[in-house]
Amino acid sequence: MQARSSVLVTVDCLRADRLGFRGYSRPLAPFLDALAQQSIVFSSAVAAGAPTYFSFPAIMASRYPLSLGREVVGVAPGEPTIATVLQESGYETGAFLAGNPYLTARLGYAQGFGQFSDFLHLADARAGSVKFSASPGFSRFNRALERLSNRTKLTAAAYNELYFRYCQWRSGRERLSMDQLRRYPAANVVVDAACDWLKERSGRPFFLWIHLMDPHHPYYPPPEAMESLGMSHITPKYARFLNSVWNRGDLSPRRLQRYRKEVMALYDAGVHWVDRQLARLVEFLKAHNQWDDTVFLVTADHGEEFLEHGNRYHSPVGLAEQLIRVPILIHAPGSSAARVTDTFSLIHLAPTLLEGLGVEIPHSFRGRALWNDLSTGKLPGSPAIVECVESCNNQFSAADRCGNRLMVVLDGDHKLVLRFREQSDSLYDLARDPEERRPLPDTVETKNRARLLECARDYLRYEREHRDQALALRARLRELRHHVVLKSAPVEADKTTIETAEHG
Fold first, then answer.
1. Cβ–Cβ < 8 Å for 305, 299
2. Quick one: pLDDT band at residue 364, thresholds 50, 70, 90?
3. Of the ranges 48-57, 151-160, 281-290, 459-468, which one carries the lowest mean pLDDT score?
4. Which end of the chain, N or C, is less packed with Cβ atoms under 10 Å?
5. pLDDT of the residue at 498
6. Maximum distance among all alpha carbons in the chain?
7. Distance of alpha carbon 384 from the chain centroid
8. Do you find a cis peptide bond into 222, omega within 30 degrees of 0?
């Protein structure tokens, strides 16, 4: 097979049900919906872990997130990835990532890339640009008042509300734009850089990885995206209020529910902006005669929760459907449009893409190459494994990442959730209970429960017996060399203090 180029687009927090070709009624992504008519799309794709730091080892290295041990962060030094394999095969390789702190060169994701731009300098600058500082005298008074208020629930609630309102008043005096409030560079900035890189290619096949953060919280979409969706009434000041109140750790899901619709509208505008920029990227590829020889793949690392189970964002507390279901769209020259309805785990993404490019697949990849099966829309059936460390909201923290495993075994409509901390399992029938509200009694579906439990045991046994100790050791040594400052890392889940939420 003649070598072809490839573009891999990963979109942080993009829920599968937010795209028209996956059933969403609102036209958020008209370009991707149109492209889906000419592409292979997946109706039941799932991440191998969540959030980002548990998902990407599977995407880039076809390795389950905990298979090298809980203590390993990122991709291990020397671990084969899509990029290293393609670079060794003569591909030019470039990566442009919108400032995600868990996708950096320090964590191994630059391996195999001739050009690696993580935009962390822009993300760091934006994160520090909207904070205000109080005088030492006020800070001492505030801490004393907080201690007094904690004597009763009523006074604590009153203090929390008053302090939140005070923070809003203080921040409201700053006339900041959506661009200034946004923590991560918008998709147009990343796509511009990727297009500049594409202009300089020598004619050899290339592999381009783009990671976009527009749907990630805090939700500050560009005004153009909001105008396109009829959301011009949401000013930067009000968007800041919505993000701040949504981030409050002292409010119950019931109280937060009143803001859910507007917060989701901000999220939707981020998805819409991604779609517009991907349309621009494809137009560039077409204009430079690169489209007809390029495999174009769009997916997400995980989804996002909006109180469906009382949770916000993407903290690994339950691996709900909203969190683990991801979209996948593959447009390939010469391939017919198809819809794949069988379960497809992101663990299979890397070997499948390499097979489509005619490149040899490393023996270390745990997933299967399924490219030749995609056109039929029928895959060899096998349960999907999803795993993470429960409630690990900061993988840079040793205490967080060395907690108890949380695992899902998914096969068709049956989903088994295993909580190792509680030594419990819950079986759901998603056909009858798509919202996962009612776990089946232990006496129901006993054969399916036993089968999925056996799958979990087989998986754990295999991973333990085949752990690559050399890779694990290299990852640990790398962490020691970099002197990781555990408490300074950004947190991907919701914060618990109002003061943090105000700046978030």
1. no
2. very high
3. 151-160
4. N
5. 32
6. 73
7. 18
8. no
Residues 333 and 308: their CA atoms lie apart, in Å, by: 39
Rounded Cα–Cα distance for residues 418 and 195 (Å): 44
Cβ neighbors of 219 (< 8 A, separation 6 or more) are: 239, 242, 243, 263, 266, 267, 269, 270
**Residue 351 φ/ψ, nearest 5 degrees:** -65, -35
pLDDT digits (tens, 9 = 90+) for 108-130: 999 999 999 999 987 666 665 55
Q: Report pLDDT digits (tens) over 335-346.
A: 889 999 999 999
Q: How far apart are the first and last CA of the chain?
A: 49
Instruction: Give how far the C-alpha of residue 481 lies from the chain's centroid of Cα atoms, to the nearest Å.
Output: 27
CB environment 184-222: b (16+ within 10 A), e (fewer) = bbbbbbbbbbbbebbeeeeeebbbbbbbbbbbbbbbbbb
Count the helices and strands in the chain (H runs, E runs).
19, 16
For residue 435, give both structure tokens: 């919202």
| 78 backbone dihedrals φ, ψ, rounded to 5° | 80, 0
**Distance between CA atoms of residues 33 and 25, nearest Å:** 11
The pLDDT confidence band at residue 144, using thresholds 50, 70 and 90, is: confident
What phi, psi does 257 have (nearest 5°)? -55, -30
Between CA 406 and CA 324, with CA 417 as vertex, the angle to 5 degrees is 75
Q: How many residues does the chain have?
A: 504
For 224, the enclosing helix (H) or strand (E) is helix 223-228
Distance from C-alpha of 301 to C-alpha of 327, rounded to nearest angstrom? 9
| H or E segment to which residue 384 belongs | strand 384-389
Residues 6+ apart with CB under 8 A from 111: 75, 77, 78, 79, 81, 83, 84
Structure tokens at 275: 């779609």
Q: Which two tokens stand for residue 201?
A: 């290619």
Residue 439 to residue 426: CA distance in whole angstroms: 6
